[in-house]
Amino acid sequence: RLGQVAQDLGLDVFAVGGFVRDLLLNKQNLDVDIVVEGDGIAFAAEFARRFDCRIRTHRKFGTAVLIFPDQFKVDVASARTEYYLEPGALPTVEHAPIKLDLYRRDFTINTLAIALNGSHFGELYDFFGAQRDLQEKAIRVLHNLSFVEDPTRVFRAIRFEQRLGFRIGVHTEQLLRSAMRMGFLDKIGGHRVWNELVLIFKEANPLPAVLRMADLDLLEYLHPDLLLEKRAKKLFANARQAIDWYRLLFTGEPCRHWLVYFLCLLTDLDDQAVASLCQRLVVAPRLQQIFTVEREAAHRATNLIFWRRMHTAPPRPSEIYDWFQPLATEVLLYAMARSNNEQVQRCLSSYFTHLRSVQCELVGSDIKQLGIAPGPIYKEIFQRLLAARLDGELVTR
Ligand code: ATP
Question: What family name appears in the similarity comment (predicted)?
Answer without folding.
Answer: Belongs to the tRNA nucleotidyltransferase/poly(A) polymerase family.
